[in-house]
Amino acid sequence: MKLRPFGNTGLQTAPLGFGAGHIGGTNLTEDEVGTILNRAVDYGVNLIDTARGYGMSEERIGRHLSWRRKDYILVSKCGYGVPGVEDWTPQCIYAGVEIALRLMRTDYVDVMMFHSCPKETLKRPGVIEALEHCIQDGKVRFAGYSGENEDLDYAISTTKFAVVETSVNIFDQRSLLSSLPEAQKHGIGIIAKRPLANVPWKYAERPVGAYCEPYWERMKAMKIDALIKESGLSWNEVALRFACYADGVNSAIAGTGNIENLHRNIDIANDGALPENLVAALHEAYMNHDDNWRGQV
Q: How many CB atoms lie within 10 A of CB 87?
């Protein structure tokens, strides 16, 4: 896959990254996980995104990818979930980094992010400084923040984070309007999560209680079925290419536990940016129907 600069980090990333949440559960065997992870990297997907809260994800990345550590950018998240340690304290951050290093069998994490915490947490004494100390110790290369809306705006304004991660898709364009242009000004690397919006188009009826229900509501409000059909592309193709090549986005992370879906996503991303008129129409549809649609955490 064609690489491009990852903000001002000096790293380069492919337009498609791998979201490793799907490999953290017990529904996949170790052989299946190993095949998916290595096939992704073999085909040029060089950013692997995981988190403390993604089940066995960190452990499996260590088991199946640590032997080729130089082939990919490793992104994880911390701040919570350390037994016996209060969440969002310097001690929790130090411990979280150490656990991540051990599980992923590596000496360093390229980007360690604070995972969807509010700006009030970022203002706590010692929280950001703890991650900076991990950078000084060589255990983390760059500090990052994953989040949305005013919390994301605050994180960007601190200029303490080299990378941010936020929701970017056809139905979640809020960050494209304000947060990401500001991040670009500071040379911050940008990762887009939920590029497929949790595929709401697969539901004929409202998916009550499903993760994508808010996106299903927005999809119905935007009324872009005809637009997608006229493009000659599938929903998946339009959605993934929209996010991968959205202005400012360096890599869009799509997770899967299915090898065929992985190959399909790679092929789609390699097709490049959508036609400019289609992108403009998708932006217009969002703007015309935006009912204070906030970024989905």
A: 13
* The amino acid at 138: G
**Domain containing residue 120: CATH number:** 3.20.20.100
**pTM of the predicted model over 0.90:** yes
Number of domains in the chain: 1
The residue among 10, 67, 76 whose CA lies nearest residue 49 is 76
Specify the long-range contacts of residues 261-265, CB closer than 8 Å, at least 24 apart: 262/18, 262/36, 262/39, 262/40, 263/39, 263/43, 264/236, 265/16, 265/240
Residue 296 in any domain: the answer is no
Q: Which residue has the tokens 């051990």?
A: 102
Residue 73 within a domain:
yes
pLDDT in tens, 249-259: 999 999 999 99
Place of tokens 């500001």: 182
